[in-house]
Design goal:
The protein has 353 residues and is an alpha+beta fold. The chain contains eleven helices and six strands.
Length: 353
């Protein structure tokens, strides 16, 4: 494919690209085609002058712009036909009823020139394969023999004028090389406009991506959605920190309570009702001591070397110490409750802020 000459579109010079792609070389330039167009304009002027230079038709003809070229670079079929005559080539209208009656298979031809709305392009056989050499494509497009007739029929339905190029085309490197090998095309070339649009879209996406990355790095300006997300994350972290502080405080208080209870004798029964009243606590202690005394009476003599006696409930006995210990636990529980209430109130206040 690299050996195929393919001029891409520049301005409106599609007629130049069409001729050079057909001949497979830089044979024509805008200056040379303009010279042919001026020559054709002069021939037309001379024919109009035969009717009289003072006639209305002649003055109207002089006021009209050239029909063979314009400032954009467009050239007429007459310019293309005259340019090909230099190489001994002739154009025959493929769409004409006269040519269609010949029923010539398109694959038996060598090349076609197609035109639609002032755009020209070449379809040529190089070696044993057909190629669409449209200058609007990013590269030559391979056309199979079975698809060629359908491709030309589709162009006709779209309003294209198709011309068969008759005559011997000049030798070219691509034709000689492709006589020996056949090429394959995995991906068809895109239109130049589509490729430019795709590149532009890629640049836009790249710019957006860079903007997002810059914002994530903290060096850009975050949009409202990203700012909202950042605020939500900050509030979530703040609430987690508050819950962690509250849990830490509860654990510290629990450890403090455990530390104070270690001073009490291990024989004292553990109660889960720290919030019980002092009267209920006394009743539970008395029931426990009665149970201990009954157990001593049941045990055989001599088994208990130190029989336990029910301690006195006087102010100097163990009962008084238990009362004092339980009173301290009640006071500690009250202090804990007040501390927790204070912490909760402070947390609520912080969250409202």
């Amino acid at each position: 494919m690299e050996s195929i000459f393919h001029e891409k579109q520049e301005g409106s010079l599609c007629a130049q690209h069409c001729l050079n792609n057909l001949l497979q070389g830089e044979y024509f330039s805008p200056v040379e085609l303009s010279s042919i167009a001026h020559q054709l304009d002069e021939e037309e002027r001379m024919r109009m002058a035969e009717g009289g230079v003072t006639s209305e038709d002649y003055r109207t003809f002089l006021q009209q712009p050239s029909g063979n070229m314009d400032d954009s670079g467009f050239f007429s079929i007459q310019v293309i036909s005259n340019a090909l005559k230099v190489w001994g080539l002739e154009l025959i209208l493929f769409n004409s009823p006269e040519y269609q009656r010949l029923r010539i298979d398109p694959i038996n031809e060598r090349s076609f020139i197609c035109n639609y709305k002032e755009h020209w392009f070449t379809v040529r056989k190089l070696g044993k394969q057909w190629f669409n050499l449209n200058s609007l494509l990013t590269g030559p497009e391979l056309i199979s023999d079975t698809y060629l007739a359908l491709f030309l029929a589709q162009l006709q339905q779209e309003g294209y004028s198709i011309f068969v190029v008759k005559g011997d085309l000049p030798d070219c490197e691509a034709d000689q090389l492709l006589q020996m090998i056949r090429v394959q095309q995995m991906h068809r070339p895109k239109l130049i406009g589509e490729e430019l649009a795709q590149l532009k879209e890629q640049r836009v996406l790249q710019t957006d991506l860079e903007r997002v990355l810059e914002a994530n790095d903290g060096s850009g300006i975050l949009d409202e959605e990203e700012e909202g997300l950042q605020r939500a994350l900050a509030l979530s972290r703040q609430e987690i920190d508050m819950e962690d502080e509250e849990a830490d405080l509860r654990r510290a208080i629990q450890l403090s309570m455990q530390g104070s209870s270690r001073n009490i004798s291990q024989d004292i029964p553990q109660t889960s009702g720290i919030n019980l009243s002092s009267e209920e606590l006394r009743k539970r202690r008395e029931a426990y001591f009665e149970k201990q005394q009954q157990q001593q009476q049941v045990d055989p003599p001599g088994q208990a070397s130190h029989p336990r006696q029910r301690p006195s409930t006087s102010s100097g006995g163990l009962g008084s110490k238990l009362d004092d210990a339980m009173s301290e636990e009640e006071m500690l529980q009250a202090a804990v409750t007040m501390s927790l209430e204070t912490v909760k109130n402070n947390l609520k206040t912080e969250r409202k802020k």
